[in-house]
Every structure is written in structure tokens, then in C-alpha cells.
Amino acid sequence: MTTTERAYTGKKGKNQSSKQPSTVQKPRKIQRSPGWRILVTAALAVAAVYFLFPVYWLTIAATKSTSSLFGSSGLALDNPQLLTNLVNVVTYNGGIFGRWALNSVLYSGVGAVVATICSLAAGYCLAKFTFRGREVWFNIILAGVMIPGTALALPLFLLMSQVGLVNTYWSVLLPSLVSPFGVYLGRIYAQAAVPDSLLEASRLDGAGEFRIFFTLVLRLMMPAAVTIFLFQFIGIWNNFFLPLVMLSDQSLYPITLGLVQWQSVSDRHPELYQLAIGGAFLSVIPIMIAIVSLQRFWKAGLTEGSVKG
Amino acid sequence: MKRIRTIAAVVAVAAVFATTACTSTPPGSSSDPSEKANLTFWSWVPGVDKAVDLWNKENPNIQVKLEQTPAGSSGTYAKMYSALKAGKGAPDLAQIEYQELPGFVLENGLVDLKPLGMGVESSKFVDWQLGQSTFGDSVYAVPQASGPMGLYYREDIFSALGLKAPATWDEYAVAAKTIHDANPAQYINTFAPGNSAWFTALAWQAGAKWFGLDGDTWTVNIDSDTTLKVASYWDKLREAGLIKTEPDFANGWYSDLQNGNIVAWPSAQWGGSILSGNAPTTAGKWKVAPLPQWDSTYASANWGGSSTAVLKGTSNAQAAEKFAVWLNTDPQSISLLLAGGYGWPAAKNALAGSTLDKPEEFLGGQNANKDVFKKSDESINTSWGWIPTTANTYTHLNDGFQAAVEGHGTFVDAVKAAQTATIADLEAKGLKVRAGD
Amino acid sequence: MVLPLVYAIYESVTGIQRSGAFGQGGSSPVFVGLDNYITALGASAFVASLGRVLLFAVVQVPVMIILATALALLLDAASAWGVRFFRSAYFLPYGVPGVIASILWGFLYTPGLSPLVNFGSALGLNLDFLGGGSILWSIANIVTWQYAGYNMLVIVAQLKSIDADLFEAASIDGANAWQVITRIKLPLIRPAIVLTTVFTIIGTIQLFAEPLVLKPLSSAITSSFTPNLSAYNEAFANNNYNLAAAESVLLALVACAFSFGFLKLVTRGGSPS
């Protein structure tokens, strides 16, 4: 067993019964003096300034006109015109920004859902069925976790161009459906969370393998599913190299590619600076809100799925 | 692995669909111009949107959809090449600079326009610009505009220091020192290490001729004494700390133009619109002088000439050719493009009576086109040509210049290294090549 | 996953032969063996780019992991006010795609625009984020900003799963805060640290979007600044797909070697308690 595997399985025996160890009401903290408390808070606050400063700058910049973007302090408001700017962003070039946003949601949403189901199924098969070459497959998957996705983007482009899929939704979607990390996590989790006895019982009841998977196993593996889904969703959302290589039609672009396009066009069309910044603002803020409000699930998923497994 | 097998199956099925789709629609060779056509056009030229709108209004049957892209070498050529390689996703029409045309021809990416009408229309264009898109017996693009060079300078700052526009490069170096000594924050210009197209134009002006074709063999002569003279000139200014070395066409540079920390720019005719667009508060303070000279015979150069090409895989090559010729010869279209600042028209007789021939407010009322650029355009060494791997050569120069700016080697070293590397590039393409002219 | 790799290997041992100045005489692919690999490894720029990402990884990975661990431990100490707010604030940048983060920080690095540079020069400091000496670390900063919060959350999750009885026992034994951290917390969160380290290694070696976005702003970023940038440039600017494929394969090998190497190292270093 490798160490990473231990990362998931390390605590399994102990915590299987208590689903939320953090809620256990016991005095887990050792009380400290107020001076210590101020010190720790100050350290945390300094870190918070670092993490929030660019967000603050983006918010201020999004309110500015192109000329005051270059001509005024980046930290203070200067004739704020946020609404005008945002209207420009969403109406520019026939509302292409909305199209990009929808594309991003499509790539990430569909990609993450399918990848999650595939990963769970594959992980479950690897964990609960014995077949020839099982360990070989698992090692290939493990190697897949280690291979940087971007190193595969170029070969994928060459492959996709052979079969004529370049510059289609499929060219970005198909590679996004594969998640070696998801399979890996799926297997670890299935080993720990799906008891063999339950499977035996269902089979004795005459349930088919598909039914067992979709009704029983999926439910048991839900925490892992949440983790894989979120992981894959953000992964696809943030992906840049793959769509950059695959897509040439602007109407297929995800937001990342579109904004970079605006930003690089702006050397000859200065008005696009403001669009790039306004677009960044519009695309970042909802995701930030989502991320923060979904934090519970991230945590739950990570605790249940990754760490405890 | 079940998952992988599923994907393989999907890919296979999709492949079958793609092949049937290919065979059922014949490649776009239909040549009836009255037929309906929808064309996409990639361009980054300011003002082209207005010209396209005008075309679409006048030609309901041939509708052109413009996609404004980043400048070619900032990623758009890469996109075109990848689409051509993939056999789909390429636009019908695209902006292609002269130096990139041989590369597209080598990758078999352009439609020969001669049989489609360019053969007849070619008399409408200036000879040397037409020559940039003619290879062998084929015309692979409609010439659009060139970039005859001149020197943009802040007249207010120069005259406050008692400086005249430098007529020679020696005077230019003196001006560089005067300016920087008077105000350490100010520099005469930036030598953008990532923009070797600019350096190439300056070598062109000095009389260098880097590339040639001898039968089937390409010749490469980048490290000639002439080019090395230009490189070492800029080496001296850089080592003396008299020029900036920040990237051009970038935020920091715009900011320096705006606040007067950069006071001159040896640039092309289209540079005026870049200045007025990005440093609007400096309006009225700029003037244009002829490019500083090396010798007594006046010589100029071209920076950033460009064409409109029809890409392989177009749905209607005939309609595309028609649009490309219209875009670059129709007086109304030309005046819209001129207003955006697309460069010096490739169509003959475009100056007289056009929007080119008038004083410009941004230049304090100077009629720079008449005063400077007309003569500049006539003084370009028009025998200059390019190779199919010009982009690689630019990359080598950029890398060398960037290293020099970081303190590793000199611009001269960069030029020498580019010579060797360029020969290797052409060999790697499976082409015949030798050094010298 | 296997398919693209196999195809990449096929492309990487192929070359092209042409006749005529523009290949009018026809072109054909030929088997060239390891020529493309020799070219790639013989090109000082590509080798330098590999060296650069390795240097980047060697510095970036420890900084990232130490920062994430420190933040997690501080938050878990719960001796502070506003723990929930801080945790959200740190995690927030994870939702910002790398390219957008780079556009953002790009503005914050640009002289004349950046409040940071202005602030620095007001203090008499000449901050140059985009120069040759600093650009790699400016990129490291973007990566750290983006992922430190995520790594922190993974570690926090494992900290939360530590049995509270252990802390009780420790406090009865009179352990101080430092001892609790070094004797109980750190050994128990080792798996999470290993996991985040492996992911950070893989992430740093495939550096691409950040230098691509910052390239127009910085003279110091060449077209072969990182292996991925080099492969992209070879493929699409120079149309040398074969060389690009060879570079991709080399990059995958290096990344694999490093991650497995690290795992081997920590596994051999003894098992966590």
C-alpha cells in the first residue's frame, strides 16, 4: 500500500461509525491566554489580506473606465461605473460572454457528472471484482494520476484531429470525462465503504449487477461522489490548455479562453481591457460565492471521501 | 477498462460520422457568386469591423462574420495552423502578415486566388506588395497594406531640450543621451526584446536582405555585417542604459507613453493609431519625422505588412476571393480601414483625395502621410522576401534578445545564433537550405 | 489516456520529408527513430525549461506545503476570532481559474498600473516583478495564492478527523501547544501532507497558463520558458508536431518520475504512527 493510499484509508477502521467526527462534543481545544489569541488572529489576518487583496483590486478595477484604469490609483474608487461596465461585458459582440459562461457550465457540469459516475463504476469494479490484469489496470490508473493533464493535451489534439473531432464540444468534453484520480478515489472508497456481505445479500435476492450498482453502491459511495464531482468540476472549469488547443471557433470557447482572448486583443483595441477585467469580475464572483457556500460539502467530501475513506 | 473502452467506442462512432459528413458535402469549390455564402473572417485590424458591416449591407448573398482575434503572432496563427492541421475549424478568410505567408503556403493552407480572379485584379495593387503574396505562378493572398516606417516623437519634450528630430542614427543616440540625462525617468524608446519583427524592419532599412530563394534552395543571410551593425548599435544604447527594454504593446509601455516616460517610437505608419488609442492624453504633442538614416541615401523599411488570404477548407472560395478583393480595393472600404489605422494601402493610387491625405489632430495638425510616409513607402527595398519558417526565426531572435536583456550575451550574439538556428529550422522542415545570399 | 500517449509516442518517432521550395513536390512522413528526442534534449532552451520547472518545484512545493500546513494548524488551534471567515478567505482563490488569476496578478505586477509597485517606489523600493530574476517567483506567488487555501482545506479536514480523546489525554499529561502540534497533529496529518505534496508536484511541472498570460508583459518569459510552453510553440507556431510530441512524452516521464520518486522516498522513510 502506498502512502497516498494511506491518506485515504488511514483512519477507516476507527471512524466508520461516526460520520461527522468534528461535531463530537468534547473539549478538543486547549485554552490559551488572550495574548496568544491576539497573536494567532493577527497572523491569520495578515494571511487574509494576502488572499483577498487581488479580489479587492479586481472589484475596484471593475468599476473604472479604461482611462481611469491606467490613470488613477488602483486602490480607490474613481467615478465608479460598475453597471455600465458590466452591461458592456454582457452585450459586447452579440452577448458572446453569456455564451462562454454557458459553455463553461456545460463542459464542467456534464464533464463532472459523467466523470463521477464512470469513476465510481470503474473504482467499484476494481475494488470488488477479480478479473485478469486488475492490478495492471490499477497501476495504469495510478500512473495516470501522476501524468500532468497538459502533457496529454497535445497528443489528444493530434488524435482528435485524426478522427475529425477538433473544434467541437466533444473535443473538450471527451477528455474531461476521464478522471484517473476519481477512479483511484472510487476504488479506495469502495473497498472501505461497500461491505461484501451486502453485495452477497443483494445477489442472493436476485438483483442484477447494474441494479446493485445504481441502487445500492452509488448510495453508499455518495460522499466520494461529491468529492470527485467537485474536484472534476473545478478541474474542468479551470482548464485552459485543452480548450486552447482544441477550439478555434469562438462560440465554443469556455470563459477562461474567452477572457484571455479579450485580454490579448486589447493591445490593439484598448477598450477591451475594461471588458477583460469586467468579465473576470463577473466570472469570478459567482464561483467564489458558490465555493464559499459549498464549503461544507468540500469539507464533508474531503473528510469522508479522501481523508477518512 | 470499461470506461476507456466506452470512450474509444464513442470516438470511433463519431469518427464514422465525421467521415460520412466529409464525403457527403463536397469540398467548397462551388463557384457561382450569386449563390448564398456565409463566410467567417479572422482579423485584428482596427476598423475592419466597419468595412465588414458595409460589405454585409451591400451583399446580402455573401455574409461575412468577423471574429476579432489577437494579433497573429500572439496566438492567432497558432490557431489557424492547428485548425488547418485538424482539417476543420479554420476560418474562410484570415488576416495574414506578409512574413507568415510562406509558412502557410508550406503547410498547404492557402487557396490559390489567381484562377479565381486575382489574376485579372492584380493590376490594382502595388507591385512589391503583390510580390509578397505571389509564389511561383500562384497568388496566395490579396495584399492589404504595408507599414512604411517613420519616427514618432514627442515634439514638446524634444524641443524643450533643444533637440530636433534626429536625421541619422548617430543623432538619435545623442538625443537618447540628452533625454535620459535630463530626466532619468525618461527614455527615448524601448527595445522590445519580444518583438523581433521590429528589429527585422530596422535591419531591412539598413540594407540587409536576410532570405532568398535560389531554385529550390532557400538562402539565409541573417548574420551579415549590415545586421550586426544594427544589433551592435542597439547593444551600445542598451549597455549605456539609454533605452528601456520593456515589452511594447503591453500595459507598462502604454503607461509609459501616457505619462511621457517614453518619448519616441521608430514605428510604421499604422503606429499612429496605436499611440492615439492608448495614450489619448498626449494628443497634439506628437510629430512624425523620417526614420533616422545610416547613409546619405534615404532608405526606409516596412514593418507589419499584411494581406487577406483564403484558407483551405473554405465553404466558398469564389465568394471569399470576391470579398477579399473588395475589402482591399473598394474606396469606401479603404477609407474605413484607414480611419482605423490599418497601414499603407496596397491598392494603387490610394493616397490622393483619400482620408490619408489630411492633417491629423493627434499629430498637432501635421499631415504625416504626405510629409513622411509617402516618401517612406517609395524608399522601401522591395526585394526583401521571407521564408516558410520566419516565425521560428523571430522566436530565436526574441529568445536571444531576452537573454541579452537579462544579462546573458548581446543582441549581436542573438543575431548570430538566429542564423544557425534558422538553417536548422528549414532543414527540419525537409527543405533545402544554405547560408549566404 | 493510454491512447493519446501511444499516439504521442508514434508521432514523436516520425519526421517529414519534402521536395520543392514549398513542398510542391510532395511530402511524406518518415520514421526517424529517436531523432526528435535527441533534438529536444539537445536544444538548450528545452533543457533549460525542464531545469526551470524543477527549480520551481523544489522551491514552490515546500513553500506551498509549509504555508498550507501552518494555516491549517493556526485555524485548528481555534484560539482566534473569526475562524470561519478566515478559512473562507483562504479558500476563495481556488475558484479563480489560473488564467484569470494570472490576468489579475499581471495587472498587479505591471509598473505604472500596480498599486504594489507604486507603494514600493514610495518607500524607495524598486519592485520589479516582471524581470528575469523575479518572474519565476512572481509566477510561484500566483500558484501559491490560488492553491494554498485548497491544500489547507485538505489538511484541515484530516485535522478534524483526529480523535478528540487524544487532545484530552495530552492536556492531562500537561503537554503544551507546541508539543501537541509536533507529537500528535503533524504525525497524524502526514498522509494529507503527502497527498497535497504529490498534487503540488504534478501541478508545478505542468506550468503553462501563468507564463502564457504573463508573456506579453515580461521580457523574461521566452517561448520555451516551460516545457509545456515549448511544446505548444513547437506544435502550433512552428508546425513541428513531431518534436512537440517528443517534448510532451518527456514531460510526462519527468512528472511521473518525480511523483513516484517522492512517494518512494516517503514510503521508505518509515510509516506514520
Task: Give a structural overview.
The complex is a heterotrimer of chains A (309), B (437) and C (273). Chain A is mostly helical. Chain A has two domains: 35-80, no CATH class; 81-308, MetI-like fold (Orthogonal Bundle). Chain A is 75% helix and 0% strand. Chain A contains 16 helices and no strands. Chain B has helices at 2-24, 48-58, 76-86, 101-106, 118-121, 127-132, 155-160, 169-182, 196-206, 225-239, 251-258, 271-278, 317-329, 331-340, 368-378, 390-405, 411-428, and strands spanning 37-43, 62-68, 93-97, 134-135, 138-139, 142-146, 149-154, 211-214, 217-220, 264-268, 286-290, 306-310, 344-345, 432-435. In chain B, helix 2 runs antiparallel to helix 14, helix 10 packs across helix 17 and helix 16 packs antiparallel against helix 17 (411-428). With 437 residues, chain B is an alpha+beta fold. In chain B, the strands form four sheets. In chain B, strands 2-1-3-12-6-13 form a six-stranded mixed beta sheet. A three-stranded antiparallel beta sheet of chain B has the order 10-7-11. A three-stranded mixed beta sheet of chain B has the order 8-9-14, with helices on one face. In chain B, helix 2 links the parallel strand 1 and strand 2. Chain B is globular and about 65 Å long. Chain B contains 17 helices and 14 strands. Chain C is built from 13 helices and two strands; from the N terminus they run αββαααααααααααα. In chain C, helix 2 (35-42) crosses helix 13 (241-268) and helix 3 (44-77) packs parallel to helix 7 (135-160). Chains B and C meet through helix 3, helix 4, helix 11 and helix 16 of B and strand 1 and helix 12 of C.
List the helices and strands and how they pair.
The complex is a heterotrimer of chains A (309), B (437) and C (273).
Chain A: H1 3-9, H2 12-15, H3 34-61, H4 66-71, H5 82-128, H6 134-146, H7 149-162, H8 169-176, H9 180-193, H10 196-204, H11 209-220, H12 222-238, H13 241-246, H14 255-265, H15 271-293, H16 295-308
Chain B: H1 2-24, E1 37-43, H2 48-58, E2 62-68, H3 76-86, E3 93-97, H4 101-106, H5 118-121, H6 127-132, E4 134-135, E5 138-139, E6 142-146, E7 149-154, H7 155-160, H8 169-182, H9 196-206, E8 211-214, E9 217-220, H10 225-239, H11 251-258, E10 264-268, H12 271-278, E11 286-290, E12 306-310, H13 317-329, H14 331-340, E13 344-345, H15 368-378, H16 390-405, H17 411-428, E14 432-435
Parallel strand pairs in B: 1-2, 1-3, 9-14
Antiparallel strand pairs in B: 3-12, 4-5, 6-12, 6-13, 7-10, 7-11, 8-9
Chain C: H1 2-12, E1 14-18, E2 27-31, H2 35-42, H3 44-77, H4 83-91, H5 98-109, H6 115-122, H7 135-160, H8 164-172, H9 177-188, H10 190-205, H11 209-214, H12 227-237, H13 241-268
Helix pairs in contact in C: 1-13, 2-13, 3-7, 3-10, 4-7, 5-7, 7-10, 10-13, 12-13
